[in-house]
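Hi there,

I know you've been waiting on this one. I reran it after we fixed the sequence typo, so this is the corrected version. Both the input and the resulting structure follow.
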Amino acid sequence: MGLFRKVLSDQAPTLGVRDATSFPIAAECDELKHMKIATFRLPQERDDQPGATFAAVIVGTDTDESGAEFATQAVRLEGVTDVGAYLTMPPTERQPLVTQALDAAQEDAAKVIDVTNFTYETLIPYPSKVFCIGLNYRNHILETGLELPEYPTVFAKYGQTLTGAFSEIAIPELDHRMDYEGELAVIIGVPGKNIPAANAENYIAGYAISNDISLRGMQGRTDEWTQGKIFEATTPVGPWMTTPDEFKSDAQLVTLVNGEVRQNDSVDDLVFGVNELVEYLSSMITLLPGDIILTGTPGGVALAMRDENGRRPWLKPGDIVETRIEGLGAQRNVIV
């Protein structure tokens, strides 16, 4: 994969929150093209202080024996701590920053870093909002025995719930019933309210992998799910964000536990598609750069399975959960 190609928009976006119903159909995020961008952490130099984080554009990828894509090289965006900080910059400043960094790397190969020397952090550590959509894949709804919903089921997470694509995830003492939910994450790139579905793509910065790790015992205590969904550092997002032009709308999502395929479905099997979700959520509240929408999970979760002894195969210490989506790389989280 080569350096991303610079594409200039015909109309430079302006700043500020606006009502999307009055917008001309223009590419608000058009400066974000042909790009994968990630958040990394520098090695720890002091026991009492973690290494600093930085955003970098992925400029080289490869695939492993299983076919999963992984990054090999990147170019650091100087002064930008993470992808969230990048997205909250004025749009007119984002493209020049990336262009300058890539041009400098073409002149000086030393600026191209080996990403294996660094740790992935969650893409956006402090999003203003993390929306989650429950029961949004047809096969997942069918395995629960429910009917297709008339409206999206919406709940929320918090920034502290997020973690890195390769971080360990701890089973809490409160609940051992830990389950996986591989999901497509949508990341907002420019602010907007009352965004029509037909114009929603103009507000999307990109897509990433997520896993809505759930504590089913806590989730089942009441009809409201939040308490089973917000445990600290349990929702990996990443490893990178891919811009929309680089992502296939029918990409395959696969979740594996210890190498066994548990979930395998196309991300276009959603009851409420990405554009519909952007329209629905923005009708209630202004979407801001860096906001994340977890679009739901397909069938195959542990909650809907039983082993030969009639027990559900909850995640346990030592398990390795991998989530892959074509074009978005792969996550690999060890349960501890």
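Quick highlight: The two ends are 35 Å apart (CA to CA).

Best,
R. S.
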